[in-house]
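hey can u check if this looks right to u? its 472 residues, i copy pasted from the old doc so theres a chance i mangled smth
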Amino acid sequence: MQFTSLVFILFFSVVFAVYWWVLGKKLKAQNIFLLLASYVFYANWDWRFLVLLIISSAVSYYLGLKISESKTPQRKKLLVNLGLLFSIGTLFYFKYFNFFIDSFAQLFHIKSTLTLTIILPLGISFYTFRMISYLLDIKNNKLKAETDVLAFFNYIAFFPSMTSGPIDKAGLLLPQLKKERIFTLENSSDAVRQILLGAFKKLVVANSITPVTQEIFQNYDHLSGSTVAFGMILFLFEMYADFSGYSDMAIGFARLLGFKITRNFAFPLFAQNIAEYWRKWHISLTSWLTEYVFTPLVIQFRDYEKKGLIAAIILNFILIGAWHGPRFTFVLFGLLHGLYYIPLILNNKLNKKKKFSKSVPTFQELGNIILTMAMVCFALVLFVAPTLKDALGMYGRIFSLSVFSVPEFIKIKILGLIGIVILIDWLNKDQEHGLEISRFRPVTRRLFYVFLIFMILYFGVFGNSSFIYEQF
């Protein structure tokens, strides 16, 4: 049930109507209905894994209570470790077991059929991280164990952010689940605008680019280096439009139900160095790893000063790469991004934030943006390549003399769509999202809404509109 499908629109319309107009201010009834809606949404993909979701929620809820009741640090540590073992073990089995079985079979030339039976449950990487952060926050006394079982199960299964995040922390979402939500026309109107922008990004921009990048990546060994490099640039915009489009819609649908969830993108295409890029890209994941992985590592390595900081960042990014899936190329993708940080650390520029001095970027600012995006695109080769051999083949094409030729697959329509996304983001780079345009005149706003709706209806690529990050 994709956000952009007619089935989901009908599903959400019914949920919205019952949630606000039938149940009104009955908080418990709203939460019961919201949980049922989330389970229906998830079961629509595969009802068998709904059982896993419910069991995982129950285990985390029970352990959270027991950790909070623990009288000794030893017992608390034991229960936390049991929770981590359960959560990480479940994630490892479904997401990585195939990889290790395949690798073992290839190493010893064994034919294996076991891997054919293991399917990756939808959203498991995202809801597992929610459960882990919940238990760690209780352990670190940042959060009290939740006693409201209905609120907790809703927190884990909240359907707007179930399939691809954002990864909300319990401290943000649980309090909202336990207090009355108020419907306001102003908030709902802004939520609809954000959903409209997300739909435009996904259906028009990302889905228009996808066939081109697929053609390039599948036939890279027969194409010029310039075409492969152009494909990497296109994929950056495809992934941004796809994932930020999903996030815009997830945040918008949550707001329509009265919830404020984590912002996941802050216009990363204008980042002036790689550290700023990661502060603006997939914010919920990077902030999660910063709190629960990077910061403990920095404390552990503090005696080694800059060397320790470099080691912590590299380990953190290797984990970011591995989080995406069981491929060596993902690990190398993370490693490369970690290595990108070394010059910033050595020059004491890691935490320096750069603001644009004018309404139009200066040549230096533009140069910084181009360099940063070039680094991102270079690393994306490892992201899209299924094997190390394919990655080396793509790099070989890019660094061949054919990189100086005119690239193929240049389409004015796609370049125009990318230009529209860049313009929207630039005009709203200081806002919460790209269609927060209340400062413009009403006539201008309405014309722009009509323009986006027209673009979706005329240029939108419908049908199978799965999102890239659903596979993670």
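Residues 330 and 383 are 6 Å apart (CA to CA).
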